[in-house]
Each structure stands twice: as C-alpha cells, then as structure tokens.
Amino acid sequence: VQFLESGGGLVQPGGSLGLSCVALGFTFSDYAMNWYRQAPGKERELVATITRAGDNTVYPASVHGRFTISRDNVKNTAYLQMRNLKPEDTAVYYCGVTKIGRGQGTQVTVSS
What we know:
Layout: E1 2-6, E2 9-11, E3 17-24, E4 33-38, E5 45-50, E6 57-58, E7 67-72, E8 77-82, E9 91-97, E10 101-102, E11 106-110
Parallel strand pairs: 2-11
Antiparallel strand pairs: 1-3, 3-8, 4-5, 4-9, 5-6, 7-8, 9-10, 9-11
C-alpha cells in the first residue's frame, strides 16, 4: 500500500493551493479517504474526509468553507483544494485511509 502526496509549497496568506494523492496497492473505491495535517509541536489533525463514492464530505470547523476534498476513483487519486490559506494552516499534509495507512506527506507553508 502506498500513498503519494504532491502539490505542497509556499503560498502567501489568502492564497490557494491544491494537493493530490495517488493511492496504490488496494481497491481505492472501497475506502473513504482522509487528509490530515501536522504542524510542528502539535498533534495530527484530520482536516477532510470523503466517502467511497465521493458523495459526502466532512471537515472540522478550522477548515470548513476553505478546504474541499474530492476524489477520482478511476485515477485512484484524492485531492485537497485549499483557499484563503492562513499562516496557521502551515503543516505537513498527509493523505490516508483509516486502519490502512498514510503517506509521507507534503509540506504546506503559508507565509508572506
């Protein structure tokens, strides 16, 4: 099982960034997908979940209205579109599946 995240980088406050996650080694469409983040010195936070068919999504209050998770079950890929980014969104972002695993992560830095 592998999760390959990409798309991180440096963005100014108020900017937008899109992340991708290619999942390999399991039947992608059988599982809900998650995006997590972890900032230095903080616990890992679940920031988005999407159901197997992509027909329902869940976000915590900290990102609701700014982050959008989506998926393509043909391409075995999950996405996280982030807008109106804030310095407190700075973290390593991971994709994964509960009880299966997660990737190595991609760094997102929000700074002027």
